[in-house]
Amino acid sequence: MAVLTIHHWDEELDAGLSELLRVAREAILIVTYDPMVSSRMWLVNDYLPEVGDLDLATFPDIGWLVDRLGGDVEVETVFTARDTPDWTFGSFWAHPERVLDEVARNATSGFARMDTAVVRRVVNDVKRDLEDGSWDRRHGHLRSATEYDAGMRLVVARL
Q: What pLDDT score does 69 carry?
């Protein structure tokens, strides 16, 4: 099992997947993000395209991952609940105020991997847009949604 980790394996990704395939007996379960989906979130599109670029470079393409695992592989969408207690980057989808919370930001590798000047810019821009109401005019409908596809995927390879 690998949960929100393979995007940190860098040049060892292929070797790590080989090791999973070597030691697993029945199945391999990987929780990851599909960067093509996660990059559509308002936080990436409107404020932090640098995360989208980084995610495209670090998260493996889901199709490539399925091919690499081979055999019987299923990919399931894991919707992020509005009230999730987990503060992953994707959990910010209905909570723009979390961008202003240093503890929440620091809990995500998306923000942790950014230069402090970039983070400061994003915080200032989100704060401005919350104060003047422009965030709610563009994305306020998300506040009443119960779940959202932030790109999280469960990849199950049955061996």
A: 97
pLDDT (tens digit, 9 = 90+) per residue, 77-86? 999 999 998 8
- Cα separation, 52 vs 29, in Å, equals 24
Token pair recorded at residue 38:
């996660």
Domains of the chain: 2-158 (3.40.50.150)
**CA triplet 40, 53, 55: central angle to 5 degrees?**
75
Using only the alpha carbons of the chain, give its radius of gyration: 17
Q: Which residues pair with 75 in a beta bridge?
A: 155
Contact indicator for 124, 100 with CB cutoff of 8 Å: no
| pLDDT one-digit tens code per residue, 64-77 | 999 999 989 999 99
> pTM for this one?
0.90
DSSP symbols for 47-111: I-HHHHHHHHHHSPPHHHHHHHH-SEEEEEE-PEETT-S---GGGGGG-GGGGG-HHHHHT-HHH
